[in-house]
Amino acid sequence: MAETVFARPESLADVSTHYCPGCTHGSIHRLVAEVLDELGVRERTVGIAPVGCSVLAYNYFNVDFQQAAHGRAPAVATGVKRARPDLIVFAYQGDGDLASIGMAEIVHCANRGEKITVVFVNNAIYGMTGGQMAPTTMPGQVATTCQLGRDVDSAGHPIRVAELMATLRTPAFVARATVHNPLVSIHAKEMLRRAFTYQVEGTCFSLVEVLSTCPTNWGIPPVEATGWLEKNMLPYYPVGIFKTPESGSREPKPLVD
Amino acid sequence: MAKKLMKGSEAIGEAAVQAGCKLFFGYPITPQNEIPEYMSMRLPQIGGAFVQAESEVAASNMIYGAAGAGERVMTSSSSPGVSLMSEAISYLAGSELPVVIVNIVRAGPGLGGILPSQGDYFQATKASGHGDFRVLVLAPWSIQEAADLVQDAFDLADYYRNPVMILGDGLIGQMMEPVEFFEGRVPTKELEPKTWATTGCDGSRPTNVVNSLFLDPEELEQHNIHLKAKYDRMVADEVRFAGYGTDEDYDVLIVAYGTVARVCSTAMEELREEGIKVALIRPVSLYPFPYRAIREAAMKAGSVLVVELSTGQMIEDVQLALARSRPVHFHNRLGGMLVSPDEVVAKVKAMLGGQSEEVHHG
Amino acid sequence: MQRDVIMAGFGGQGILLIGKMLAYAGMHEGMEVSWLPSYGPEMRGGTANCTVVISDKPVGSPVIRSPRAVVAMNLPSLEKFEPDIREGGLLLINSSLINRGAERDDLTVVEIPANEVASELGNPRGANMVALGAYLGATDAVPIDSVIEVIRETFAAKPAVIDVNIEALRKGYELGAAARQPEPVSA
């Protein structure tokens, strides 16, 4: 007798996504969906889609969704949560959306301690608009608006969102994860599970930054993208838990001691 | 409830509460700060929520989220802040979300000043954001009317699933007048449950999505046609205006809205005491604009005077209504200066004495 | 019939308060009323003024360019508003703080040492009440009993100041009534 060991989570819609080969948005969607299923909150969850590659996230999740203006997902999420505190609200944002145009909204949303969860996908580039420099683009990394590579003298250094958010005094759960191989994906899911659990329990704001690949705009084959992420992004964007509601510490800690 | 002397800002806040608004998101800007101040005190009393947002940009997106979740919600601001909200207003219209937005207009452009102006007429009625949409705009001339229109605005917003703007000025915000709230108020519209709201989906219906993105042009065209049909219904059903002396004979018809119309009503009385026949028509809905009512009233007059606190904005709609069938004259003050009854009296006398030139556009 | 008055003075003299009390009393009398404050940066420490209109018909313009009466509690207010008063109107000057009389000769002028009167009554903060009383005495814009009722409501939380304020109002009323001349009234 056959036993189902792998199936589409109920929180994920039964459709194909538009994401490019080698992009990890799909993996991250799936991890979020699995967590929603496992916490049993799918029926009271509202997602907020950003502007960027994941603008169509509302088509890929099997939960109610609102599509937000560029960068404003944390403000929209605030509106939903304050209107209906019983709902589980998450914003799904990319690096241009959250760390550039939406920097004010994410910082103040976290600082107010809105009981929402933010899934922040950092792939170090603007994807949907065609590979422009993001606030998270690595020094020297080529993008269409820095064709000789990011010059930190004129563009500054990449913004480390998890570290920045962890400086806020308001209790929160802030972590950084990556999904470029199965093992670290399991860790990523655990961070997402903790983030949503804090919301379910009404404890605090939670944000999980997830490093992601963008072979299309990085200009390298999908199979090389995970290696590029490991080599170039991981040293600058260390994974771990940066802040928990119990601790005001800014030091990253490993997920498992 | 008994009459109460209330500041306009407080009356607007209380009217929202009476209409079932439990959520307010806003950012400080003069001269409307008493609205968020009132709501910050009042909403917690009724189990609602007030959030002082980090900007008007954020506030306008917070009302988007709350309206999308099916709750009655309001924000207020003044001109520069409303400019910052214009992106969200477009999204609200595109996503068909019911919200009430109060603009206590101050003089511009830029940072301008904080005194009364009607310089945001174009913005409110024709260009509150990018794209092809309309916002219902209501302009009170007294505190009681502000309170009444705010309550109506919530019904209209829900009925049409569209933003409704209350366009006032510093006088409406700061002035105190007697206000009465009527118990057992009946909604102006029969309202249906908000089955479209994002309230969580248990599988008994398809997931609800609040969205203004339509990448398929044919789909977007259908959406635009759907919105246009809605605006056409507003034009057919929601025109509001008031006429003063328009049932009698008159030589000059004055057209003015908001508090300026009150100044004109005083001027009208003074002129009538002198035997000069004048009537006043006051648009209450600025969108939809009472084109027909103004045309019909103007046909009884020899000439028309438009009075505004702008360089000439509503006058373009009046001229559109009249199609050059009557000469249109204009009197205004700018920068936060107010029109006085004496000025209007003098202008009407100049018109009748042939010492005023009519205004042509185009 | 319409009564309108601009009350003006330093911020902190309680000008906006007596304007509000006048409007409240008018409302209690079943009249149409409006109260319009000056607003803006000058609210903080500079001059404050408010316009009160009391009418038996809906109030037209709440902004009065040529008021029927002005209560000037300090010199800048006198200088600002004296030229605007309607011909034959009332000018009430707080002579405690203003060491000149009216410049115009077409007005009914009432000079009241409001601060001194209030101090003599042991209520130095009550100069605004003296001025309000004087305005009522000179115009009977609303019955004084109606304002007394408003004083009781306004200071319900501070009963200790009710009687002293009523006393200040009454004293002002006497001084205003003594100087009374018929105020021109028109619709």
Descriptive notes:
- Chain A: Pfam families: TPP_enzyme_C.
- The complex is a heterotrimer of chains A (257), B (362) and C (187).
- Chain A contains 10 helices and 7 strands.
- Chain A is an alpha/beta fold and 257 residues long.
- Chain A has a single domain (25-243), classed as Rossmann fold (3-Layer(aba) Sandwich).
- A 7-stranded mixed β-sheet of chain A has the order 2-1-3-4-6-5-7, with helices on both faces.
- Chain A is globular, with a radius of gyration of 17 Å.
- The N and C termini of chain A lie far apart (40 Å).
- Chain B is α/β, with parallel strands linked by helices.
- In chain B, strands 3-2-4-5-7-6-13 form a 7-stranded mixed β-sheet, with helices on both faces. In chain B, strands 10-12-11-14-15 form a 5-stranded mixed β-sheet, sandwiched between helices.
- The model of chain B has no long low-confidence stretch (mean pLDDT 96).
- Chain C has 187 residues and is of the alpha/beta class.
- Chain C has one domain (2-178): Pyruvate-ferredoxin oxidoreductase, PFOR, domain III (Pyruvate-ferredoxin Oxidoreductase, domain 3, 3-Layer(aba) Sandwich), CATH 3.40.920.
- The relative contact order of chain C is 0.18.
- The mean pLDDT of chain C is 92.
- The interface between A and B is large, with 37 and 40 residues.
- β2 (64-67) of chain A pairs parallel with β9 (209-210) of chain B.
Count of runs of 4 or more consecutive helical residues of chain B: 12
Spans of chain B of 5+ residues with little confidence (pLDDT < 50)?
none
Residue share in helices of chain B?
25-40%
Shape of chain C: globular
Q: In terms of per-residue confidence, which ranges of chain C show pLDDT below 50 for 5 or more consecutive residues?
A: none
**Helix-strand sequence of chain B:** EHEHEHEHEHEHEHEEHEEHEEHEHEH
Which CATH architecture of chain C is right? Answer: 3-Layer(aba) Sandwich
> How many domains make up the coordinates of chain C?
1
Mean pLDDT of chain C: 92
CATH superfamily of the largest domain in chain B: Thiamin diphosphate (ThDP)-binding fold, Pyr/PP domains
Determine the CATH topology of chain C: Pyruvate-ferredoxin Oxidoreductase, domain 3
* Shape category of chain B: globular
Specify the helix fraction band of chain C.
Answer: 25-40%
Q: Which class of secondary structure composition applies to the elements of chain B?
A: alpha/beta
Radius of gyration of chain B: 21 Å
Given the structure, what is the number of helices of chain C?
6
Arithmetic mean pLDDT of chain B: 96
> What fraction strand of chain B?
15-25%
Cα Rg of chain C = 15 Å
Keywords (chain C): Oxidoreductase
Protein name (chain C): 2-oxoacid:acceptor oxidoreductase family protein
GO molecular function (chain C): oxidoreductase activity, acting on the aldehyde or oxo group of donors
Pfam families (chain C): POR
